[in-house]
Amino acid sequence: MHPRNRYANVRHDFDAMATSNPVLRPFVRDRSGEAWVAPPDPASPGSAGAAPAPAPQKRPKYRYDFSQAGATTAFTTVLLERDFGLRLDLPQGQLAPTLPQKLNYIHWIEDLIALPTAPEVLGMGCSAEPLASAPLESAGSKIVREAGKGEVVGVDIGTGCSSIYPLLVTSLHPDWIMIATELSDVGREYASKNIAANKRQDRISLVDVDNPLAVLRGTVFPADFVLSNPPIDFCMCNPPFFDLDEPTENRSGRRGTRQHGKAGSDAEMMTVGGEAGFVGRLIEDSLELKHAVRWYTSMLGKKASIKTLQRQLLEHGFPTILRATFEQGKTHRWALAWSYSTIVDWSEMPHGTTVVVGDRVKQDSSPSQRKRKKSAKLAAGKRLKGEGGQGEATYSQTETGD
Prior knowledge:
Layout: H1 14-20, E1 28-30, E2 62-64, H2 71-84, H3 99-114, E3 117-119, E4 153-157, H4 164-172, E5 177-182, H5 185-197, E6 204-208, E7 232-237, E8 242-243, H6 266-269, E9 270-271, H7 274-289, E10 293-300, H8 303-316, E11 320-328, E12 331-339, E13 341-343, E14 353-356, H9 367-387, E15 397-399
Parallel strand pairs: 4-5, 4-7, 5-6, 7-10, 8-9, 14-15
Antiparallel strand pairs: 1-2, 3-13, 10-12, 11-12, 11-14
C-alpha cells in the first residue's frame, strides 16, 4: 500500500467493531464459522448475596466474511463514517467501493501533482500560463475556479453511485474542486444524493453524460473546446473491466461471480472495448485536449491492459508516461498516467512508480537517481536469490512498451 494510506499495516479488531457497529455483526465469524456473540456486559450487577462472577473468558478470534452479499458495503460505510465523517447510501446490486484501493490511487495522484514539471511544446501550440490563473469552464459544470485562488481541480470520469473519489478527495483536501461525470440514471441519482448528504455541492459538480462513448470531450469539455489556459490538474477513472462484445465469462470463468461479495451492475462492469477500449478513448481525447489536463490517469484491473495501452501512448509520443502497481492484500491494481509536460526533478518519484520509455533510457535521469536505482536492483536481486524466487523492484524503474 501507499505509505500515506491510513489502512497500511492496520489489523482491524472485528470483535470490537461488531460490538460498536451492529450493521457488521451478520458478517463477523469466529475461526470455526460460528456467528459473532456479544461480550458479557461488565456493568450488569449480580443479585445480592450471589457468588462472585467468574473470570471473563478469552474472546475468540473473529474474522470478517467479505464473501457475503452486502459485507463490503457494510464495512465500507462504517469506515467512511468513522474515519472520514462521510455517510454513504448505496442501492443493492451496485459496486461497493473498497477504501484501501481507492486511497492508494488518490495518494498516487497527490504525488503526481507534487512533481515539478515543465510544459513540453511538441508543435502543439500549448499555453504555458500558470494553472492558478486559469478559469474553469466545462460543459455542464456549475463550479468556476476563481482566478488566482490556486485550487487543484480534478475530474472523476464515471463517478458511480458512491461518488467515492470526489468525496474522499474533498475530505483529504477541502480546498480542492472535483468534477464528477456519470452515465447511468441510477448512478447520477445516488451520486447526487451522496454529494448533498455530505454537503459537498460547493466542491463537487456532477455532470450528466448521455453518450456511452464520450470520456472527456463532450462531457467535461465541449466538443468544440479550444485550449486557452490549462484548467484541470488531473483526471482519474476506474473503468469497467469487461467488453460488451466479449463472451460472458470473467477471469474466474463465470460472469456472474462476484468476488468478495461485491455486486455490480452491467453499466459498472461492462463497456465498449472493456477497460482497454475505455482508456484508449481517453488517450484519443488527450490528443485533442493536450494541456487542458496536466495529468491524464486511469486505474486498471487487468494487467494485460497495461502493455496494450503503453504501446498506444508510446506510439503517440507523449513525453511523460508513468505506471504503478497498487497492492491491497492479495488484490492488485495497476495505474497509468501520461502528460504533455516533462518532469524536471526525478528525485521525488511517486511510490512504486515505473517510468515507461521506448528506448530503455530513463528520461532526465540524474547520476544520483541512477545510483539509487542500481542499488535498489542489486538489493532486490540479493533478496530474491536468497528466497529462491523471482520478482521485480518497483521504485522508479524504467520499462519499455514492448
